[in-house]
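Hey L., structure's done. Input below.
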Amino acid sequence: MIKMQFKKVPEILIVDDTPDHIQFVANILKGKKYKVRAITSGTMIYDALKVGLPDLILLDVLMPDIDGYHICTSLKSDKRYSSIPIIFLTAMNEEEDIIKGFNAGAQDYVLKPVKPSELLVRIETHLDIKYRSDELREAYNEIESFNHMISHDLKSPIWAINKLTSYLSNLIEDKSEDIQELFATILQKSDDTVTLIEKYSEIAKLSNASIQTEEIDMNVLVKEICHDKESEILPQKVVYNVSKLPIVNGDRLLLKQALINILSNALKFSRGRETINININCIKKNTDYLFSIEDNGVGFDMNYATDIFTLYVRLHSKSEFEGTGTGLTIVKRIISIHGGKVWITGEVDKGATVYFTLPIESIIRNPM
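Output:
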């Protein structure tokens, strides 16, 4: 028997027009400490559901007023009741009758005359499935709420920075070209950050509604990122070796963030070198562009290659290298949305190379 994990005693609603059969089934269920309710007509189903939602419905197929198929179809098309598992109780064992029941949305069926052990096993199976589904749904709702909260809490201070920067800009009357450029950069960065938060929220909700595709010159995008990275204070000399890159189709802001995350990792894990060398290349491979970003950093043991893309997994301690362990996880999601794949190779103390593909023809997919 399946071990039940319910926090409360499950309630089962029996819908059957034969009182003797209701009594027989109810006795089986009460022997296992289930709560039982029963109605003798399909027309009473919605009144019964208003009293309270059962954890499972045992539904007779042949009833004089309305048959079980119509009841099942009606319940499964209603969001309020669609998650309640339904098991048909039927004397009809023809294949077409069984198929008709499953097409109506039933989870299972038990043939009459009912065998107690069979009925109990099927009930416990579907209650267990429902319990797990409810837990997953609850967890998903919590993630949605958390995602909304984080999105709101992050955007508010960024908008505040944006407004304060604008206010400060207006207070300064004589602005040199450098100061004007600085203010413009701060405003643009804050706007981009808010947009990224919104896009990450969409990714978390497995929606691609906000993905905006356009032609992107990867040469220009990489040059822009490398220029931004040059403003970061590093004791070492950084040499970027960039080959000719293609024009791709995708969401510019997301692909930019993916490249920023990859390059940030490359710089971080190479900072012990006298000179940091970053090689960025691309070749055509079948129907994809294959990009590679190679560094000369500390590398890693290839036995942990698949773990690198797992959320919050770190191969180096925080005392060695800062970070949260989310960068490459985000890269994987972004590339996946664009229909590509990402992987990494490396060797301890001999650097690492991140590879990713983008389709030559535009493909935008739901996040995985």
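The chain is about 45% helix and 20% strand. The radius of gyration is 30 Å.

-- N.
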